[in-house]
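Figure S4 source data
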Amino acid sequence: MQQKMTAKFGISLSNRAVLFNWATMDDLIQAAKTAEESGYFDSVWVGDNLISKPRVESIVTLSAIASHTRRVKLGTICMASFPLRHPVLLAIQWASLDVLSQGRTVLAVCNGGSESFGPQFATELQAMGVQSRERVGRVIEGIKILRRLWSEERVTHEGKFYQFTDVELLPKPLQQPMPILIAANPKPGQADEATVERILRRVARHGDGWQTDATPVDTFRDRFGRIQEYAAELGRDPEQLDSCLHLYVNINDDVELAYRESLEFLAEYYGTGAITDERAKLWLAIGPPEAVIEKIQAYIDVGCKTPVLRFVSPDLEGQLQRCIAEVLPAFHGNRMPEVATG
């Protein structure tokens, strides 16, 4: 029998669902504790936006979770506000979180929403004083600044978007180097092949891994393979790059009910009509445990190292417990993993 590829699982907690009463902050913190105590989850992730999709702020949320956990890594999925945040302030905040969590953070960043995505994104960009066309440049420049501030004693920077002289940033993060993933998912019909290649090369050059969602299995295989190829061309070790997939999960023997609950969550989260059936089906792993296992395994088989599961049901605790009991053992030889104590 062919040996299954292994992966490290994450749980994605919706700090936006707090605003539409699908969960409370206490629910999220308890879910993080349950996930860690199970031994099956290696990481906890929360989403990030500012005005465009309001939520309890990501770094504040991760700080609360850090104080209630000891082992799991803590990350953003993804920091859509990255091009809106000044990198010096963000460097201090994220380094502080890394110190607070004893070196457990993973920063995943992305371009955030274009003004063409809707009026709420245009309002957010205007309020933060950022032009939509600047987002990519701010992400690249911001990553470079963070890496320097976190590793060098003093930094002077003269860039297109940011300028400062002789800055000593303290505290430094405990992790050296700090992992930074880049989230990117160019959609069919919205990005030509040249644009896709440019995006994948950006991940290979500037990121420590790739984060994505709603990506067909074959597309995931192709894109991560290309990112690794481009990284090798740059003299980087492609095996060291992470590949992180965000999946929305509803475990239910009644597939129709699972799909209805999932669509209700997506409508609350993104707005009614914002997510097409085609995109929803790519995003979702729903139905009985064996169907959820099959979908997750398909991505692991093509190179996904970090499947991150978000439960799209009003019963977060019930979903998590069922996942622990009936889904995740399939990826651990049907036995409970060892849990670190002390």
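Figure S5 source data
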Amino acid sequence: MSTTSQATNPQAFNPQTGKARVAIYLQDAHRIREGMEYAQYAESKGFEAVWQAESRLVREATVPMAAFASVTKTIKVGSGVVDCWSRNPARLAATFSTLDDLAPGRVILGIGAWWDPLAQKVGISRAKPLRAMREIVLNVRALLNNETVTFDGEFVKFDGIELDYVYQDRRAKDVPIYIGATGMQMMELTGEIADGVVLNYLVSPDYNKQAIEALTNGADKAGRKIADIDRPQLVVCSVHEDRKTALNMAREMVTQYLGQQPHIMKASGVPQSLLDKVGEVLTWPATHEQVTAASKLVPDEIVQMLTASGTPAEARASVKHYIDNGATCPILYPLGDVKAMIDTFADWDGVK
């Protein structure tokens, strides 16, 4: 099968099957045991990965990752994403080495710089995130590669340490590191040092053009090519046979991000006037009543610009826009019926 998307973005397709790559994203909306069932179902439908969130103070990522890995055989399991501040990087390496013991070759370390005001509220200063990310990624990778590491940096200070295996064979762990980048400076750093990027959700396809340019600039610095960097992207996906129902399911989530992460929304082209109106209604953290009230200000076109919402055909078409703009694997964040969304994208060829 030959398609425009395959010609322009071959990384978005599985060369063995000719089908589009696709993954699922889980936060805390479901019990962990439900998530285990969804991971198994996604695996049975040909999904390549399940990613677990850790963005708020609700659900830590690595426990459900272990649960998903324990009941599956082939699907990859990623963190989407852990923050770079709250775990010592040596412990971070040991944690993901342990996950690799459970599911060799299936674990992905997704890591990000977190966000304010949450980080500030728990006493973490996000000063110099680029330097911190560079030091942490390079040293965590070295430990996972079974190296002995000495490093005297600003954020990482290692004195001849290694993952000191005693009861298992020493080996490099196959754990690729993906950075959850949003700003263009972090995106450029990702292109320079990471195995992949986890592109954010609730952004427009046009935002991706800036991201790909920044990733390319970073790759150039390291003598790499953009094709060397995997580019999965979180995509909020609300699917229903009734278009209005699908849009309404996504509207409140869009509204919450308009109020609480306006920097992402502004980067996606949301008018400042709308951000201001929503910000007048929402506090942090916002109550459900505030989100519901503010959602009435958000028009359908903004919901559709930032999410893949609508009928199954509309949702697939929206996801295709992200692939056409550089994403290699949509990580679908389901709203509503999770299995119905998985079915919508099972055996998807990236075109229909």
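DSSP finds 15 helices and twelve strands in the chain. The first strand starts at residue 23 and ends at 26.
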